Amino acid sequence: MEGTITSTISNGIGTITFFHPQSNSMPGMQLRNLAAEIEKLGNDANVKVIVLQSEGEKTFCAGASFDELISIKDIDTGIKFFSGFALVINAMRKAPKFVIVRVQGKAVGGGVGIAASADYTFATEAASVKLSELAVGIGPFVVGPAVERKVGTAAFCELTINATEWQTAEWARQKGLYAHVYHTATEMDINIHILAEKLASSNPEAMSMLKKVMWEGTENWDTLLIERAGMSGKLVLSEFTVNAINKFKQKA
User: Fold this and answer.
1) What pLDDT, in 10s, does the model give residues 197-215?
2) One-character DSSP codes across the chain
3) Which pTM value belongs to this model?
4) CATH of 4-185, one of 3.90.226.10, 3.10.20.30, 3.30.70.370, 3.90.1580.10
């Protein structure tokens, strides 16, 4: 089952949409394609602001593809897979345009990382969050720096340790992960468009400078997140993790 990455540009607003039939989970190739599309629009002079979203209603992003996780048989393959999330986070971080993320439904694991890597995140009341990695024997190593940067150490630890429990969208807003939470996707989309239009008519140079200021202190992420991918790549080979993932797949 293949996923898709599509993008459109209209009036200075570049919109990237990802989809995967398995609850918008992310196989390695999809992650690389998404990172490449973010980088492409970031370098496009016709794009003043980027909106990142997914298709569907119930799930924004279910995180790593379990099918691909269970197929990993060696450390190099594991590192390559988890490096995909590093590529997406770093592409969002280094894009010289503000990245707005639209979270219409649940965000799990890497999905929380994508939401946290946005410069501005909109959500609906259905957009609950969970860092489930520990429950399958690994940890949110790659997305951790982005999540902790946005919500703080205490909230990051709460999400990481209580890996089987959902936190509400309102909890995520109070912790700073979401800027706004709306009753409906329609209401959210109206407000996303209002902000995106304002940014599309703002000074590109000023926004680029602001982006650099906002992300000061993360310059080491190009190497840090790859190192973290190595931690996940090692753990995913363990007997504990293989058994845990198989149990999750049986429940799905």
Assistant:
1) 999 999 999 999 999 999 9
2) ---EEEEEEETTEEEEEEE-TTTT-B-HHHHHHHHHHHHHHHT-TT-SEEEEEESSSSEEE--B-HHHHHH--SHHHHHHHHHHHHHHHHHHHH-SSEEEEEE-SEEETHHHHHHHTSSEEEEETT--EE--GGGGT---TTTHHHHHHHH-HHHHHHHHHSTT--B-HHHHHHHTS-SEEESSHHHHHHHHHHHHHHHHTS-HHHHHHHHHHHTTT-TTHHHHHHHHHHHHHHHTTSHHHHHHHHHHHHH-
3) 0.95
4) 3.90.226.10
